[in-house]
Write a structure and sequence with these properties.
The chain is built from two helices and 29 strands. With about 375 residues, the protein is of the alpha+beta class. The protein folds into two domains: about 55 residues; about 325 residues, 6 Propeller (Neuraminidase). It has a four-stranded antiparallel beta sheet with strand order 3-2-1-26, with no helix packed on it. Helix 1 packs antiparallel against helix 2. The longest helix has about 35 residues.
Length: about 375
């Protein structure tokens, strides 16, 4: 009996840190970017930063589950013959370990040009899209170790030999691509690969677009310092701007916040409920791209942006339309709101698991007290 009590007490003491860890749980989200020093920068909700080395700055990032994908062009010699490939790496977010590689051809056979990968997107149906900002094309490959080319999609009728930033998102059954270098957001049907224009920013004076994100039915697009929002078929709303000279390189929607990473090594947080902009963290090095990893699944968010005339001016110096944020409740008129709280259900699951350990700890302490009293009574 005494031995059993002692074992239970020891187990509960040893397992208490595990139970506390489960109570605390993992963060609801982690922001990911890559800097010129070749580090994967992981930024936690608290503002704490973790850095993993061995990443390529020129590569964009793509997150799927608990893995992050990167892309680069490599060349090597084999039997005195130069070989060139586009390599997509699949890595663990936790430690940066490479778990799988995919090799794709590095030359556009029609143009005879080297493919210059500027971004990738993981597509449904075991496909990977490689975006080429120099050749103005998207290459769709099978997600295999040596993935064969499925199709090549031309973003411009005529290749213009001018490099531009590119980014892509999967929304529904379409691949949304930014940009063709002329201020257009393109929509590619993932069934027949037909291309159409989703939104044209030329009429608001923006031809160079640098970053894009999607959330709650809205597309968020950034030029150098200005962030815009629009719904499919809706008007373009100037939303917010970051300090001049920072240069936005990535956007990510997290709940009711929009995060913007910049080339100056800062990440700004835009409150989509008020459109206020605050510095989230700085000192990260020269960044590229911004992705978000959800350990427990995406955070819920409900917001609507509606245009309201103001005297604000965008980068073009023209009169801009700002955004008012409203919440729409089922069966009633929209109501103005200023705050909303989201809770991850997975965190609650962690607490439920922890309660079992806390109960075990309580039983162990109770048995220890009973045992101690018996020993004292026998003295």
């Amino acid at each position: 009996m005494r031995a059993a009590v002692l074992i239970i007490v020891l187990l509960t003491i040893l397992l208490t840190p595990i139970s506390l860890k489960l109570v605390i749980g993992e963060p609801d989200f982690i922001l990911l970017s890559v800097n010129r020093e070749g580090e994967l920068v992981k930024v936690y909700p608290s503002g704490n930063v973790e850095r993993l080395k061995g990443f390529l700055y020129n590569s964009g990032l793509e997150v799927l589950g608990d893995k992050v994908y990167t892309v680069e062009a490599i060349q090597y010699y084999k039997n005195k013959s130069k070989r060139k490939y586009i390599v997509v790496y699949k890595r663990r977010i936790s430690n940066g370990e490479v778990v799988e590689r995919f090799l794709f051809p590095a030359i556009d056979r029609e143009l005879g040009n080297l493919i210059t990968p500027s971004a990738i997107e993981i597509l449904p149906g075991g496909r990977i899209a490689v975006l080429d900002g120099y050749n103005d094309r998207v290459y769709i490959h099978r997600q295999e170790q040596r993935g064969s080319l499925i199709t090549t999609i031309k973003l411009l009728s005529q290749h213009d030999s001018r490099f531009q930033s590119m980014e892509a998102l999967v929304v529904g059954g379409s691949l949304i691509v930014m940009s063709d270098g002329r201020g257009k957001i393109l929509k590619i049907d993932l069934t027949d690969y037909g291309v159409s224009v989703l939104k044209d920013f030329e009429h608001v004076g923006e031809l160079t677009l640098n970053a894009m994100a999607y959330g709650s039915g809205y597309y968020f697009v950034a030029s150098r310092n200005m962030i815009y929002a629009f719904k499919e078929g809706g008007e373009i709303i100037p939303l917010a701007s970051v300090p001049s000279g920072d240069g936005i390189v990535g956007l990510a929607v997290v709940g009711s916040d929009l995060y913007a990473s910049t080339s100056k090594g800062c990440i700004y947080r835009v409150d989509l409920l008020t459109t206020d902009v605050k510095t989230f963290v700085c000192g990260l090095g020269e960044l590229r791209d911004l992705e978000v990893y959800y350990p427990h699944g995406p955070l819920p968010a409900r917001f609507t942006l509606t245009p309201k005339e103001t005297t604000a001016r965008g980068e073009t110096g023209e009169r801009a339309t700002s955004a008012t944020v409203i919440r729409t409740t089922s069966g009633s008129e929209p109501e103005i709101f200023t705050t909303e709280t989201s809770t991850s259900t997975s965190s609650l699951a962690g607490i439920e698991i922890a309660r079992e350990w806390l109960l075990l700890l309580a039983i162990g302490i109770l048995l220890a007290i009973i045992y101690w009293r018996k020993v004292k009574a026998g003295q």
